[in-house]
Amino acid sequence: MKKRVFIFLAVLLILLIPAKAFANAPVPDPLSGKITYTNVEPGSWVQVLTAGEDGVRHDAEESYEEAEKSSGSFSYRRSRDDKLIQIEVISPVGDFTLSNSLELVDYGNYEYDGKTNVLKESSGKGSAIIDSLSVILGALLYGIWIIASYVLTIIVEMIVGLFFKMKPYGRIALANLMTNVPMNIILILCDILLGIGSDWLLYGLEIVCVVIEFLYYKKKYTKMKPGTIFIYTLLSNILSFITGILLIYSLLF
Asked: Which of 39, 58, 192, 239 would be a feasible disulfide site paired with 114, CB 3.0-4.6 Å?
């Protein structure tokens, strides 16, 4: 019986690796966008300037390009506090030109015309469709990440559970459905909506998960000593956390 369980878990782990790799693919960033420029003197530098509520302009992250031709495009990324966007053009002889300012929007794509010195938001069905698909793809990748994390966790914790004889093993899957999935949803929402993504938040949620799982196992495994249940809960969570970190590191680096 144990041999079959090990084979089953090993196959699941092998299938998880490509899913984990896909889950770690770049997710569309609402703070990033595209600048398309036309009628710019070749050799000029096209720079994105952003500003917060205080109106103080500063260079956006990785947001400039030397125009080899009169038209082109490049990507930019702003900070969460930025509210306005503006284009600065530096000619080959060092003259500066500033465009009008626009209010920043998520996934914002903009067009700049060097002839009229006007910056405007990109329009058209094509852009709207691309933005919609980006949002859908982002949600899909987040969903895959949650599922992949859940599957990886129950694989590791079931393997540990074999040594502690945590039968029936389905309870491990149920316990993590109550803890691992909500934890990842909270982490994603905190990062997207609040910009909070600290390690302390992760560690705090992990501790909460350990407590919830311990109380659940203590109620279900009445014949086991509470001390043994606590050791299993703590050990399985530590090992699943370390395994996830190592797997992500190996896939990314």
From this structure: 39
